[in-house]
Design brief:
608 residues; TIM Barrel; Jelly Rolls; 3 domains; eight-stranded parallel beta barrel; six-stranded antiparallel β-sheet; 11 helices; globular
Length: 608
């Protein structure tokens, strides 16, 4: 999801014109952006009748969202400079709990996740900041940015005052909030407002919850303006006393604004998320918003005296297994791109390059890689990912899990709704078929003696919104039946594909690529980048479905069904010289990986 989607030279010109118009609108309606002159720090962002004031002076928020966790750290400055050049005065960003606390008691605020550096950079460039710390953020992330280890509690009730959840939130906020308190406006920093949770009106299971989050922020030193953000039909149930409400929308509807003003009279109107694009799901089209539609809507929003935040100004990529999924009306997993098409070259600070293809020259079968996993584990019954005794007993968050058991006959295998989300099925390591949400029965061929039945189950992404977040367990979440009898006595391997696992494969028994390699398997090749590495886009024609790793880093999933056909590979992820390319492919491979200078997000369709 990105403001500018550059498909050809005509669209590139439209995108540039779009930027210029937004900048012009900014100056036409707002004058010089606040921040260019000194102001009092005694009073922060406040509501004065129908307008905001900052430092006691009238202020209009023209915001844009860029997520630090979706943009390589080396490009933060570039992206924020482009935002500043467009006349935007406020950066907004979510804070992903799942990335900052991958395990209980383990926190990460370094390098790519260095939130303090990101906020300080915004200040250096003259941008104000609205922080959106959650704990739930949606943002099309797996489980809406909540850590999956919460689900190991069988009684867990996410986004409520259930003690198991509030205790976890308190532990997280004890680490997070002290980092941002000194960066608040009244303390000399750029943070002018903090959002309380996100879109709680669409969930609204606990009347006490939003007050708990509000007090959790304030008791730890958050003293700037607080706000909530909801869609028009959930505004009433998403608010909390003493907190400004804001609205999310894509099309400006007079009735929606009237509803907000009726709930909150004599207060500034803020469009917290003006959606400049939409997410894509596997097997569908690539959704785009015509730039001229955005210009028209933003012009009207500002003409009416409202503040606005563009979501997203620049989307970036959901690297690795970050992407979430939709549950309604049926389960659909999201693609890795959260924008994909790059900005037009304005200014042209970075270049893109097509490199020579990486030819795969070594192969490692899935079965030969199992000894490098954490496990195996024995269990009478299937165990879901989140309850596996791995990662210091925090369970498995992402990737694949292999379940193996012994059978003595063939027949009809039934998965029910217990395979989450997709499983390749093997007998004696020979592929026999696929379980997915729509196909839940599979014939197992007859054979003699004991044979090994294997199910390689993939977590394709937990849903990022909706009322069933508590039910987002992955792997085998219940019994699989053979001839109506539940399978028992499993050996379970966790294949979370973390960097430590990929690194450990250096010691694995790789073999020269055979003429007919086995699948699933790992394929290794080399990418040569000379000089200062440039951005490029990974394309895998002839491959079916899998994951790409560059120098041990997980770029994300690819899938031939599209729409996304390339994965973004930032130049900073590459070394000058030799780079290791590893592809985990489930079913079919072409044995070479292409690197192109332009992205391919699939056939585009305008958002209706």
């Amino acid at each position: 999801m990105v403001v500018l989607r550059v498909r050809n030279s005509h669209k590139r010109k439209c995108a540039l014109v779009c930027l210029c118009i937004v900048g012009f609108i900014m100056y036409r309606y707002l004058g010089m952006p606040a921040g260019g002159r000194r102001m009092s720090r005694k009073v922060g962002l406040s509501t004065n009748s129908s307008q905001f004031t900052l430092g006691g002076e009238p202020f209009r928020i023209l915001g844009g969202s860029i997520h630090y966790f979706r943009v390589p750290k080396a490009y933060w400055r570039d992206r924020l400079m482009k935002m500043k050049a467009c006349g935007i005065n406020t950066l907004t960003t979510y804070v992903p709990w799942s990335l900052h606390q991958p395990e209980r008691g383990v926190f990460n605020f370094h390098t790519q996740l260095d939130l303090e550096s990101y906020v300080n950079l915004a200040a250096e460039l003259g941008l104000w900041v609205i922080l959106r710390p959650g704990p739930y953020i949606s943002s099309e992330l797996d489980l809406g940015g909540l850590p999956s280890w919460l689900l190991s509690d069988g009684s867990m009730r996410l986004r409520t005052t259930y003690p198991g959840f509030t205790q976890a939130v308190n532990t997280y906020f004890d680490k997070l909030i002290p980092k941002v308190v000194p960066l608040q406006f009244k303390k000399g920093g750029p943070i002018i407002a903090v959002q309380v949770e996100n879109e709680y009106g669409s969930f609204a299971k606990d009347e006490s919850y939003m007050l708990f989050i509000k007090e959790a922020l304030q008791s730890r030193g958050i003293s700037e303006l607080l706000l909530t953000s909801d869609s028009h039909n959930t505004l009433k149930s998403g608010g909390v006393d003493g907190v400004i409400r804001s609205i999310k929308l894509q099309k400006l509807n007079q009735r929606d604004i009237q509803d907000l003003n009726a709930i909150q009279p004599n207060s500034p109107t803020m469009v917290m998320d003006y959606w400049t694009g939409w997410y894509d799901v596997w097997g569908d089209l690539h959704h785009v918003l015509p730039p001229e539609d955005m210009v028209s809507a933003v012009r009207e929003i500002l003409r009416r005296g409202m503040s606005v935040n563009l979501y997203m100004f620049h989307g970036g990529s959901s690297f690795g297994f970050m992407s979430g999924a939709l549950a309604d009306p049926s389960y659909k997993a999201l693609v890795p791109s959260y924008g994909g098409d790059s900005f037009p070259d304005m200014p042209a600070l970075h270049y893109r390059e097509a490199y020579e293809p990486a030819v795969m020259y070594q192969h490692l079968s899935l079965w030969d890689a199992l000894s490098f996993t954490e496990g195996p584990f024995k269990s009478l019954k299937p165990v879901n990912m989140e309850n596996l005794p791995v990662n210091n007993r925090n369970g498995q968050s992402y990737g694949y899990t292999l379940y193996e058991t012994t059978i003595t006959r063939g027949g009809l295998l039934k998965s029910g709704d217990n395979v989450r989300d997709r499983a390749l099925v093997f007998v004696d390591r020979s592929y026999i078929g696929l379980f997915k949400r729509q196909s839940r029965e599979l014939a197992v061929p007859d054979g003699k003696g004991q044979r090994t039945l294997s199910l390689l189950v993939e977590n394709c992404g937990r849903v990022h919104q909706g009322k069933d977040l508590d039910k987002q367990h992955k792997g085998l979440v219940g019994d699989v039946l053979l001839n109506n009898i539940p399978l028992r006595d499993f050996t379970i391997y966790s294949l979370d594909m973390k960097p430590s696992f990929i690194d450990s494969l250096y010691q694995a028994p790789w073999k020269t690529l055979p003429e007919t390699p086995s699948f699933p398997g790992f394929f290794m090749g080399r990418l040569f980048a000379f000089g200062y590495p440039s951005d490029t886009f990974v394309k895998l024609p002839g491959w079916e479905k899998g994951v790409v790793f560059i120098n041990g880093l997980n770029l994300g999933r690819y899938w031939s069904i599209g729409p996304q056909q390339t994965l973004y590979l930032p130049g900073p992820f590459l070394n000058s010289g030799v780079n290791q390319v590893i592809v985990f492919e489930e079913q079919e491979g072409d044995y070479k990986v292409l690197f192109e200078e332009t992205p391919d997000l699939g056939m585009a369709a305008d958002i209706q």
